[in-house]
Amino acid sequence: MEPLVQTPANGVSFLHIPDDRFTTARITVSLYVPLCEETAGLYAVLPYLLRRGTRAFPTMTAFNRELDRLYATGISGFVSSVGETQIVNITAGFLNDEYALNGEPMAAQCAGLLLDVLFDPPLENGLFREADVQQEIRCTLESIAAEINDKRTYAVSRCKRLLCEGEPYAISKYGTKEQVEALTPAALADGWKRLLATAPVRVVYQGSGDAAAVRDAIVARLGEREVAVLPPITTADAKSVIARENETMDVNQCQLVLGLRTAVMGDHELNDAMRLANAIFGGTPHSFLFRHVREEQSLCYYCVSRIDRRKGIMMVESGVEEASLEKAETEILHQLERLKNGAFTDEELDNARLSIIDSLAGVEDSASTTAQWYFTQSLDRARTPQQVIDAVRAVTREQVVAAAQTLTLDCVYTLTPAKKEETA
Amino acid sequence: MKQQTFTLVTGEQITRLAHPSGLTILVYPKAGFRSSYALFGTRYGSIDTTFVRDGRRIEVPEGIAHYLEHKLFENEDCDAFDRYAKTGASANAFTSFDVTAYLFGCSDNFEASLEILLDFVQKPYFTEQTVQKEQGIIGQEIRMCDDSPERRVLFNMIRAMYQKHPVRVDIAGTVESIAQITPELLYDCYYTFYNLHNMVLTVCGNVTVEGVCEVADRVLMQAEPLSLDMAFPEEPRAVGQTYIEQTMPVAAPLFYLGCKCPVEGVFVTDTEMMASEIVLELLTGHGSQVYAALMDEGLINDSFGGEMFEGRGFAMLMIGGESRDPQAVKKALTDEIARLQAEGVDDARFEELRASLYGRLVRRFNNVETAATAMMDDHFHDRDPFGFIEAVQTLTKADVDRVLREWLCEDAMTLSVVRGKEEV
Question: What is the pTM of this model?
């Protein structure tokens, strides 16, 4: 099943995956903008505003009742960020025609709704309606505030900010409270028009239905336009002195997050070797971190490493007792040194490779992981899972060590329990 | 070997086998898939805190089922994760209120991984030393859960709602309760509940019935017939507490409004399950009037939603999310319930929601992971693989009205709230 990538016109790239193994089909339209301070809040609110309805079904109630009638068709709008790009997404997931009990032409009808959500929202005097705008601003502000609820995610995002201060990478996909509060119906309408007029667009069509008709309709509705070029991702060296930030809160468990930099990013030749280095270090239940920090020392329930290969970042996350914080950090850094020194057996290397290949080989067995895969691939350099598998097979031990040696500790973030008097 | 076949709406088949060892095996081959998923589960969870073994009545510490799940990964001579490392499979396990399951997903080497799964779960090995070592790891897992407001608001609700049924006990136990766990107690639990007659293997994906049987024949050990004395104390209809609150660092209050459902026998019926899903959509669906009203008043956001949750001897409808005023949300929902009880469900809305429910069920077996998990859930809840879809086809408005009128009484409801300190 080789996906077919097409670039019909006007900065649209179209990927058709004619997969008939599922009872459903899915269309994802993604519009790409640079992640920047001035517009992050606007593009965070926009997809949620759009998915509220269409001119034909102008209220949330009417629109969602139509989706219920169409066998729980899911039309969603959401914002995401990959590297230093912010992405406005609208998706439709629907049953294949053959399962419609009353013979509804599901693919045609649901694709029509998706296009109307993107191109034909219910406007008043050319602007989004005030009540809709206020509601979505409120919901986005509540999402920003709720970041504190999940302590692990919160700690990772604080560490990311410490690591990449001043770089677009540190900007939240929701923007800031102040930017979101300042939004108006006019600003959102302008932002929406600018997005359609200039943003590179990617459409992924998975499953049955007339994909070519959807492609042509999107190209036609976008019309003639000047497509913007996304800026390249910024790079920086690790800080010369390790930055430390501690925050206290009324919690039982400490969060420990280490931020590391590497020059291996983007198209770097060691990029696939870095996948392996990460798997050996902290990416599997047989990794260094799992074995030594969790199983041998019994210091934590989780201790994992993740990499962002686009940005050249690694984060190590763990939840530990306050008394064990120093011991855990020392042990994590000790394991990092072992990795850099190539202190892994051939068997450990083989196991890491097997684990990565096994998970890549299963990507296309789920519509959502397939969509996720193509969604995170760079616009001009999409590889199939099989191409990455082939590349991972070819990585040598020396390349893994060379990739590992580029990792440099930049900062350490800790969240610790507040002393009793502080919380009283 | 006794064998039964079920045909799904897709034309695919699930085969249920009564293996001579005593184990029930369900196999769902999926054509065109590279990956597979397997779960090996036992009807044993945190609620099984007292039982009779060899004529002795045994009471075990809270959290022991979950502790046992962790310790089973260590056999006498090796660790299950080390064995999986050689096949590339991604393995895990979980313990719920009434089920413990060991699982893996893989793209290659399925039969070798299946052999590991069936083998290590049949070979317990507990010593003072290995049991002791886990205290630190699970202690941190408990601390992590203590810091999760989403989990606290749910578990507090269940504890306040149930007066007698052991579902009121937290799955992981407490740092104090797990300190009482000994190898002897683990063996008592293991030999009582990890009997193949009390277990199931579900498999979905790139598999054949013959391939699964070949491994099962080779690895499974014959189990003695089993009789379990597992009656739970009778649960009153009314909740223990109608309101419960905890203070934690959160941005805005989180809440769950739960309704304890009467369970005649061990589980609610398929029809009652489907009727409950419709009731939840009437109260929380984006197409419902009460949802639009709560959004307009700024009382809920995207986190709002509902779920039907059931297990051995318990069932509850739960509606939760984030709100600046959970009491006001409760008031709006109970007003809407009263209106629906008085007026009944609107004909058109009932048909829309029935179509929507059908659409969700047609998607239920799309992925190997969700399919294998659903097969296990259904088996442990004494349901056939297509029970729900049959129930939805025969569902009537009267079924929905009955759930509305007989289940949703105010004295069967608990409101659980987690709020930040500054608001107190």
Answer: 0.94
